Amino acid sequence: MESRTARRVGLTSVMVAVASLLGAVAARAQDAVPEISSGDTAWILASAALVMLMTAPGLALFYGGLVSQRNMLSTLMHSFFLLCLISVQWVIFGYSLSFAPGGLVGGLDFAFFRGVGQEGAPLAATVPHIAFAMFQGMFAVITPALITGAFAERMKFSVFVVFSLLWATVVYDPLCHWVWGGGWLGAMGTLDFAGGTVVHISSGVSALVAAIMIGRRLGYPRRRFLPHSLTLTLVGGSLLWFGWFGFNGGSALASGGLAAHAFVTTHTCAATTGLAWALIEWWHRKKPTVLGAVTGAVAGLVAITPAAGFVTVPAAMAIGLGCAVVCYLGVNTLKPRLGYDDSLDVFGVHGLGGTWGALATGLFATTSVNAAGADGLFYGNPGQLWPQLVGVVAGWGLAIVGTVVILGGIRLFTSLRVTEEEEVTGLDLSLHGESAYSTLGSGVGTEGIRMD
Hints:
Layout: H1 2-32, H2 38-66, H3 72-99, E1 120-121, E2 124-128, H4 129-147, H5 157-179, H6 184-187, H7 196-214, H8 230-249, H9 257-285, H10 290-304, H11 313-338, H12 346-364, H13 385-411, H14 420-425, H15 427-432
Antiparallel strand pairs: 1-2
Helix pairs in contact: 2-3, 2-4, 2-8, 3-4, 3-5, 4-5, 4-7, 5-7, 5-13, 7-12, 7-13, 8-9, 8-10, 9-10, 9-11, 10-11, 10-12, 11-12, 12-13
């Protein structure tokens, strides 16, 4: 009897021990699942708002000041309209094509934000999935908006709408999936912290193709096309710089040290490139200009975008110096020599700046900054240049083919540009029936145009 009781006591003790062990394992497993962080969430939401600010009013004013006063509103409309159009496309299927599981493009698992709720995001477990999705949506908005600077003052608004919607779907979403959404470029180790390839190479190269296919503005290059308000351009450029802290810093997907590091490298590179551009221009043209300084700063912001979370602060300065040389030559030497009319130098700044930044990441990347990255050439790993080069080639290739196919297809049904009369009158009045300034009327829009 006593032995039977002892056995029962022993069995009970074993069961209690097993239950305690299973409870401890379950508790540990539960603890291993990251919880939503209020700090990370606040940072991502603030960063999404900052990136939205980059499109409207930042980019809108930056581009708007560079065109003639007859085309101010039409240029502002490009950025603002895309904020509406691409946001809707992103919710319906753009986010799903970019980040849902799939092959060359994501599936429709997240269409209409189905399954995108308050739980942790697949790529950012401490941030609500819906916050991550909207942060990424602001990248999708600004990318086609950047292209509009290439065909400013001459594209039909209807063509712009169709082109932008198709381009976001055919070019941006697949490229985003390749790099960030689990696609083949990310799998092979291509580093792109915040969009050097996804945003800037794609938009800059597409801008060059669009400018060539649409043709030059009337009178180009005999006539000088002067900015109507460098004041607005400087304000817009400064807003872009401000918003870029969310663009790059938010791409850390948390509010910790990596976000702070990206913040500092972003600012340092922009300041270095703006300073270097002004000095180069001062030496080359004998006068430093406001337009040169702000263009240089924006180019620096472009170049540091793929590298912001992978390189040291001194490396950010080196990237900025290289960017000043590459982009200055692109805008002031390559463009006049080849004769294309990229109205607001989208290719020279974003296409070339993004390409340099992507390759420079393969030179300067170091795991001492971000353990999730990889070392570059200057830190003993020349092999990192290969995935960076492949990423650049893939970005260029998809942008060229996608833009040619889209614009070529549209051209089968309608002309891409407005009539000569509409171009001379200005797109504000001819396409939108409005004037940015009260002194402009239906009979005043052609003043100051010289074709000689």
